[in-house]
Amino acid sequence: MKLLLSLSMLACTMTAMAETESKDSVDINKPVFTVIKENPITSIKNQSRSGTCWDYSTLSFFESEILKKSGKTYDLSEMFVCNKNYMDRAVNTVRLHGDMQFEQGGSAYDVLYILQNYGICPEEAMALPGAMYGDTLNNFSEFFTVMPAYVKTLATSGAKKLSPAWKNGLQGIIDAYIGKVPETFTYDGRQYTPKEFAKSLGLDWNDYISITSYTHRPFWTEFPVEVQDNWRQGPSWNVPMDDMARIIDHAVDNGYTIAWGGDVSEDGFTRDGLAMLVDTRQMQDKEGSDMAKWLKLTDKEKKEKIQKLGVNVPEITPSQEQRQKEFDNWELTDDHGMLIYGKAKDQNGREYYMVKNSWGKTGEYKGTWYMTKNFIIAKTMDFLVNKNALPKDIRKKLGI
Q1: Closest among 298, 383, 279, 280 to 334, alpha carbons compared
Q2: What pTM, to 2 d.p., does this model score?
Q3: Is 181 helix (H, G, I), strand (E, B) or coil?
Q4: How far apart are CA 170 and CA 175, in angstroms?
Q5: Are 52 and 86 in contact (CB under 8 A)?
Q6: N or C terminus of the chain with fewer C-beta within 10 Å?
Q7: Is the dihedral of CA 135, 140, 145, 148 positive or negative?
Q8: Chain segment 19-33, per-residue pLDDT in tens
């Protein structure tokens, strides 16, 4: 009996020790999120080794718009958009004798333009990404070695006249790498052209506007944000930073998503699904290091220290002046496109936007990034949104 009692007491002691050890091992700095608002989205996609975030994020935005309006789920073809957009961009580059960047990137406006002018098709109506060169996902390495060289040779040839044949040659390269755009296709038992299919989605393309916030242009007016990938010169409404923030909140709170474009090159943007507007001066104090030591750290070491602090990372409060300064100094750059679709808060009460990425189901949150409000407001280049998602007073000021 004594032996049984001793064994029982030992078991209880070991269990208690295990529970204590388990509690002690919990990372109290790791974010624990509570969802405030989550709007419906379509599946997480993977742009893989291609600079097509602008395409994936904006088509995802329109898929969410369709889902909100009709309850129907679509998987629209990113390669349809790429096919049309790269041809248009090449024509413009040649027209300007090469005095324009020809790269993989683009803007949300490009996708809207393609939908309006060329239509769209479902994913199944074109070759799957990577299929044309024996891969399972996009890999534009070879594609964007061959195509820019072709375009540059023509654009800078110094010829007095070009034949129309060069377009056929370029279209052949595009089709060979990402698939040919179908003239007609069948979807759910009905035949469509790309334009007919786009019309059948039930969206009014005139409902969509771009928003930004800079002081080098007058507020409450439109202008094309001066970044290289905005080669179509798509206009954005320029509003004060606080109103830009209000638009994002109002849109998400009222069931809308946002096609966001901005800067993710900062130390506070991690590959694990978090983004914070890190106050590096306070970080130095927390780490017990001076400015010189902090600056000597590698990007990896900085990110490790930031990740270690988790929800206790100190943040900067964004300002209109800082946004402008960073834009003018090339610090606020046009890096990445994503989809804002919800709001959450951590255990300290800090608020975040829930953002859908296009890197597959990666990171701590399987393809979703939790990006603080401070980060989003400070690092927004511009974003596409349904004009009906704007607060009434802002719509009135814009006259839309």
Answers
A1: 383
A2: 0.91
A3: coil
A4: 9
A5: no
A6: N
A7: positive
A8: 444 444 468 889 999
